[in-house]
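Quick question, first post here. What does this chain look like in 3D?
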Amino acid sequence: MRIANYRTCLAVLAGLGLAVTGLWASPAAEEEPAAAMEKEMVTDPVTGKVFTAPEYGGTLIYVFKSTVEPRDPWFGSGAGQVMSGVLEKLGTVDWAIDRDAYHFVGGYAPPLSALTGALAASWEQPDATTFIFHIRQGVHWHDKPPMNGRELTAGDVEFNFHRMLGNKLTGTQFSEAEPSPAAGALGTLPWESVTATDDWTVVMKLQEPRLRAEQHMLDQRYIFIQPPEVIEQYGDMQDWRNVVGTGPFMMTDFVPDSSLTYTKHPNYWGFDEKYPENRLPYVDELKALYMSEPATIMAALRSGQADYAGWQGNSQIASIDQAESLMRTNPELVVIQFAQRTNHATKLNTAKPPFDDIRVRRAMQMALDLETINATYFKGFADTTPMGLVNNSFCATGYCVAFEDWPEEIKQYYRYDLDGANKLLDEAGLPRGADGTRFETTYLFIEGGDVSWPELLGGYWGAVGIKLNIQPIPIGEIIPRLTAARPVRAAGGIGDWDMWVGSTGAKGEPWSQMSMSYGGSTGWHQIPQHDAQYDALYEEMVAATTVEQQTRPIREMDMRHLEQHWMIWGPTAPDFAVHQPWVMGYGGEGGFGSQQYLNVWARLWVDSQLKAAHGR
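> Answer (accepted):
Ran it through. Tokens below.
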């Protein structure tokens, strides 16, 4: 078989034997200057890693690959990437929790068991529909007009929930307004009221019980508590000059398409959960530098102009070649491997021929030799074990079925079988033409990206007579293209696309993944048409009142997704977070829950002596 991308095949042997897990650094990275060895050392009580003792001061610089601009969380659109750390929620993940209990990877909703109080010091649930939150006293807004450092109150929390929920809560100043477009699961709850009963107590009531309601109240994706006076004066908080929060950092400068600067909140209420005597944050300044090109990011790391590239700022190194290159040229860098989901699946427009035929979808899967792809393209770093919407890490608790336990009827279609693939395509009525082609299809691809993955797929599919045309399009056009059918989805709208790179198997909580294929949603996420069996299971999951009642339909939805082959599975390849050796306290954590990314920076410190010893 002739593979279209020869670059991947020429690199077959170069990376074999280099696979790692967890912290990845060459032995030379441990040979720090002698000056660093003279400092007091501490052992992280959770991870067991050894660092120089925490110290205050300095600047931490990280790379931001996406457009750097402040965003009012009410509008959604990834606001947590720039506003978390400035704004806070009622709850957050406990930094001192065992990493086996919560992985801290990405910005996914954590389980309730991982959450601890942030702006809510504590909470209780006296009955099935009532939730009482006791607001933390001694929390002060940043000393910036119009808040001027005043103390946070329960009224501020009430204001924000009313604003987020709009006309879902009658009798408020937002009763005539639409709910926030980012209300998400919080907006689907059957609300009755949100009331500040005194300065330190907020009572939230539902009309009927809902599983995980408490979790949404504490850590819904965009329910950051914002300053009422700012919203009342300016209408929103889109202008960075008006940004005021209660978090460990204050936003102090913004240069469009260049940088975003935060400084330490000197009156922050929080203490380090691992070292409780230490008030947070440690660093005096936090700076995000906008760098869109991988080569620029790598140059900044090599020169020491950037301290970190990774999940914060969406600047992780996704190329194994680039990660290996950094290790060769700069062995002092600390490189951490992680995978938050599979980013090499393929979405198919299953409402369009020939992808509406399950035999075609199965044949395309069987045509991929994932083991060879892993050994060559991914140099052995990837995991080829198939999974569905739910990450395999949740199978032990019953939310999914591990691959080894799948029925053979399903499992067979996820194995490499070129003869079987050709047979299915023949049965589907797709004979080869004179040039050997059965049909042509188009793979949408973001302009300027690495085209090697779709080229590799095209080589494998070409071997069974499927001609893949790769169509690069500007990043700004991809969402309109994919969502063209959104208003008519229920009527079978199919959109203007055939194939597109997909993600699946996220480490987010299982129930949060299932809406991606629900026909009642307005999204394009997985399948463009309804599936009655899947939709019924989804509605059963939503109506569940216990975890046990919820687990079974999630597991069955996941299996339905797999047996229908709505996506083509691809290996789970790692990303890499890279930081300088003088960044202390970091273990690869991506976030404190849903969209709570920048909270991590408040708990890291810069070893100034080690940094100076490296000439920085």
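The first strand starts at residue 23 and ends at 24.
The first helix runs from residue 6 to 10.
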